[in-house]
Write a structure and sequence with these properties.
By secondary structure, the protein is of the alpha+beta class. The protein has helices at 12-23, 36-40, 50-58, 63-68, 88-92, 102-116, 165-168, 237-247, 299-320, 324-327, 329-351, 359-374, 376-387; strands at 5-8, 28-31, 47-48, 70-72, 74-79, 82-87, 97-99, 120-121, 125-130, 138-142, 148-152, 155-158, 176-191, 200-204, 210-216, 219-227, 261-275, 278-279, 282-284, 290-291. It is built from 13 helices and 20 strands. The radius of gyration is 21 Å and the shape is globular.
């Protein structure tokens, strides 16, 4: 097999990249180790930055998002039983976010790829990337029937996550890893009940963090901070609802709506960055290169920024012969990545109470929240970081 861009992984990054390249007339092949049903039902992020929304629309993948997604113009911060709303458009010059689950983004992109894109091969496991330093790298892969084959490429983009083969193809002698593991996780539930608030609520409580989110007008997504290593099965549904009610309580008449819990899981919290994000003609994107704690809602959006940067650079190379933007891919992406890491770290440490927290730690958290709620410039910094800085959309549209 032969293609211009071999893409490993059919998550939102790999699928969006394939769509962007298709719109630009550049061929690609997407290899995905899982079957279609598994890929379309992976529960992941649900908050799309303004730039991500704009990219999906320009790529021709925004029709269902605009019909079913939930535009949000702010979030609410809760602490000491107080409520404070952060107004995104007023603080950012009009930017907002969209609540639209990653599972739905993936379904939309798969449908487009199968309709008019290049090959999308499910149950096809990438085993190795070779020749990254040559002009024609190769992906060794295994098909569902066990047959092994090779995909010859001009470029390889690894969108296969932390455990994929792409990251390990970068020599360890050239790699630098930066990481932080947090001593807590998120116990998350999906519940068949309308959200208890029309925007996301981030709550700091002496018993730990809580988040009120949603997936649709009739499905709520909620989270509790729990100790690292917690088993979701150790918490009954009633215990979860009781704890959420306690951590989200306010001095007014707000109430938490309860309903049947349909899914329950624990998400670990970590920060991770792999430098560089490029080795020869191998480019890393999304979780293959960086992971952020979910507090800042940055993971999916960073992956979108990566593939937009690559697609734009490759189109520039084709049209002008100039390899400058491709050569600068890692540095360009890492500037955005580290800003997202900074924001996610700040949100995480401001809102979560780790075991062993001191009175000094408590006062610093309250001071940080007081600063945001009393200073327009501090509030604007949060709003700008949350909604995301604009992406350069110099790309062919669908």
């Amino acid at each position: 097999m032969r293609t211009t861009v071999g893409i490993i992984g059919a998550g939102p990054a790999g699928l969006l990249l394939a769509r962007l390249l298709h719109n630009a007339g550049i061929d690609s092949v997407v290899l995905e180790s899982r079957d279609r049903s598994y890929v379309e039902h992976r529960q992941r992020a649900g908050i799309l930055e303004q730039g991500t929304v704009d990219v999906l629309r320009a790529a021709g993948a925004g029709e269902r998002m605009d019909r079913e997604g939930l535009p949000h113009d702010g979030i609410e911060l809760r602490f000491d039983r107080r409520r404070h709303r952060v107004d995104f458009p007023a603080l950012t010059g009009g930017r907002s976010v969209m609540v639209y689950a990653q599972t739905e983004v993936v379904k939309d992109l798969i449908a487009l790829q199968l309709k008019d894109g290049g090959p999308l091969l499910f149950e096809t496991e990438a085993l190795e990337v070779t020749g990254a330093e040559s002009d024609h790298p190769r992906i060794v892969f295994r098909q569902a029937d066990g047959t092994q084959d090779v995909l010859d490429c001009d470029y390889v983009v690894g969108c296969d996550g932390f455990w994929g083969v792409s990251r390990t193809a970068v020599p360890t002698t050239l790699s630098r890893v930066f990481e932080r593991t947090y001593p807590f996780g998120w116990l998350g539930i999906l519940a068949d009940v309308p959200p208890s608030h029309d925007e996301l609520v981030y709550a700091r409580h002496d018993r730990g963090f809580a988040l009120l989110s949603m997936r649709s007008p009739v499905v709520s997504r909620l989270y509790l901070q729990v100790p690292e290593g917690t088993d979701a099965a150790d918490w009954s549904d009633e215990e979860i609802w009781d704890e959420l009610e306690l951590r989200l309580e306010t001095d007014d008449d707000w109430t938490l709506r309860r309903g049947p819990v349909t899914a329950k899981s624990v998400t670990p919290m970590r920060s991770y960055v792999h430098e560089p994000m490029r080795h020869g003609r191998l480019f890393l994107a999304g979780d293959a290169a960086h992971i952020v704690p979910p507090t800042g809602a940055k993971g999916l959006n960073l992956a979108v920024g990566d593939v937009v940067t690559f697609a734009r650079a490759l189109i520039h190379r084709r049209d002008t012969g100039d390899t400058g933007p491709l050569d600068a891919y890692s540095a360009t992406c890492l500037r955005r990545v580290w800003q997202a890491e900074r924001f996610s770290y700040a949100m995480t440490t401001m809102l979560h109470r780790p075991d062993g927290a001191t009175l000094f730690d408590d006062r610093i958290q309250r001071a940080s929240l007081d600063r945001i709620t009393s200073s327009r410039s501090a509030e604007a910094d949060l709003a700008e970081s949350y909604t995301g800085f604009p992406l350069d959309l110099d790309l062919p549209e669908a």
